Amino acid sequence: xxxxxxxxxxxxxxxxxxxxxxxxxxxxxxxxxxxxxxxxxxxxxxxxxxxxxxxxxxxxxxxxxxxxxxxxxxxxxxxxxxxxxxxxxxxxxxxxxxxxxxxxx
Amino acid sequence: xxxxxxxxxxxxxxxxxxxxxxxxxxxxxxxxxxxxxxxxxxxxxxxxxxxxxxxxxxxxxxxxxxxxxxxxxxxxxxxxxxxxxxxxxxxxxxxxxxxxxxxxxxxxxxxxxxxxxxxxxxxxxxxxxxxxxxxxxxxxxxxxxxxxxxxxxxxxxxxxxxxxxxxxxxxxxxxxxxxxxxxxxxxxxxxxxxxxxxxxxxxxxxxxxxxxxxxxxxxxxxxxxxxxxxxxxxxxxxxxxxxxxxxxxxxxxxxxxxxxxxxxxxxxxxxxxxxxxxxxxxxxxxxxxxxxxxxxxxxxxxxxxxxxxxxxxxxxxxxxxxxxxxxxxxxxxxxxxxxxxxxxxxxxxxxxxxxxxxxxxxxxxxxxxxxxxxxxxxxxxxxxxxxxxxxxxxxxxxxxxxxxxxxxxxxxxxxxxxxxxxxxxxxxxxxxxxxxxxxxxxxxxxxxxxxxxxxxxxxxxxxxxxxxxxxxxxxxxxxxxxxxxxxxxxxxxxxxxxxxxxxxxxxxxxxxxxxxxxxxxxxxxxxxxx
Lengths: 105, 530
Ligand SMILES: [Zn+2]
Description:
The complex is a heterodimer of chains A (105) and B (530). Chain A has one helix spanning 41-51, and strands at residues 4-12, 24-30, 62-63, 66-67, 71-75, 78-79, 95-100. With 105 residues, chain A is mainly β. Chain A has a single domain (4-100), classed as Ubiquitin-like (UB roll). In chain A, the strands form two sheets. Chain A has a five-stranded mixed β-sheet, with no helix packed on it. Chain B is an alpha/beta fold and 530 residues long. Chain B has helices spanning 2-52, 58-69, 97-102, 109-119, 125-134, 146-156, 189-200, 215-222, 235-248, 283-286, 299-302, 306-325, 389-393, 399-403, 420-424, 440-445, 460-469, 492-504, 515-522; strands at residues 136-140, 160-164, 205-209, 227-230, 252-258, 261-267, 354-359, 366-370, 417-418, 432-436, 452-453, 482-486, 509-512. An eight-stranded mixed β-sheet of chain B has the order 3-2-1-4-5-6-7-8, sandwiched between helices. A five-stranded parallel β-sheet of chain B has the order 9-13-12-10-11. In chain B, strand 10, helix 16 and strand 11 (452-453) form a beta-alpha-beta unit. The radius of gyration of chain B is 34 Å and the shape is elongated. The N and C termini of chain B lie far apart (100 Å). Bound molecules: zinc ion. Residues 281-282, 284-285, 374-375, 378, 380-381 of chain B line the site of zinc ion.
């Protein structure tokens, strides 16, 4: 019941400003969600909003219950769309990176 | 005496004559020898010509002629049926086989010297150099990315380099936009860059497009090129450039940078018709929805480190060179040097679209991540695309509206605002407090004596807590002193004043209109203009 999954989470492209200006975080999330289903990336995003984000501007990270447009989610160095998006079930020591796209030039 | 003197003079004359004649004879012999050598060399060259057909090893001849006729890899001109349809195509007439046969070597001797260091690498070689020479590359945006990208592509001998930008050079560009110069501040960036590039390599055909890209212009201009580099700085242009690349069948090398980080993606590579799943993904496949306008930071707002954007521009040039010089994929087991037999293009090897991320202060600095392939419901590159050449050229697409705009803030009543001039006339007797909401770094560059620094955090509650903690705002509202809030340009200060008013109902808090920019313009011209 109380088992957790250790994860490496990273924020780049300016997103780190929302997370105490720290890029890399070692976290542990519950291995199953409130309904008892295995925790997936969708659950992780919600968990980050409730537990890790320090900046009140949550809308800069999540819009309409999903990661806001312009943020790429990478699961072990692959676009999450290659891995099932928010349905991807978290594995121990997965590396999840949230990248905000840059536009300057 | 006279006769003796006369004989002496005679001897003297004869000696002089002999010396002169001998000298002339030596010159004649030397000339004969040179003429004989030249005749021999000409004879040898005739033999060589016969043996090697123009100085090229026979094995290579077909390849070189093939390259000269071969469309630069990646161009879809033929699939799209527009090859030569546009008048501009004639401007870039490529050398014919006959032209080449008449020369002994396919490149001028100066070109072997200039490009030798890259030509001796198997990745480039003679064929690669010829491909570069025949290639036409368009760089959109001649700023921090475009300047280094253009320099390396011109240096490498790309035949035609198009530069597109409507901006003029500003002093604040010069720490990173290396093609411009102090003397050329105020000139069009495209003209400034062409001047720099001509000094670097005059044999490149430079084409200046001195305007910003618009949907109406994009397709006719992109069709004149083989490859496009997106070196712009806003989502609107990024979506437009990607759409135009898909619709004209051009591969796209896209990069961006901000602060200490950069990103690079090669898109629409290989370029294929919309609906062809073997084509590389486009910008919309990766980012179907634009980011909220308020999340987009420019280099002017967020800052940029010169070498960071420079690295990204140089990497764009590198990817462009790789694409332009790539050998066509062999179609079967019988790998041959015959590059003419590569049409129609073979099925692409499984493409692995990636994004390269650079972060100057992270370890490791570089990281390459796998991206998705073409999106089945992409608005431009899928079978059900809604964006077409017609919709682009007719101007019916509004990219600005698609990406959204941030409207200048004007949220306060006149009573809650004061001009910079008005503020400068207030007494400095401690009856008021100036709150500076810029971040610590900017505050440390320049600040007004006696001001309190409470950086705007983007959120009313957290900012107010900090303002109270630092003594900028009194905990229980009115303490008899007026508060004035200032920032760099006059946006954040409005938000902060609003936060203070909403929370503690303090009617004695005002913002300085136009921030420190107005302060410099109205009150103190020496205020640093950073
Ligand atoms: Zn697409």
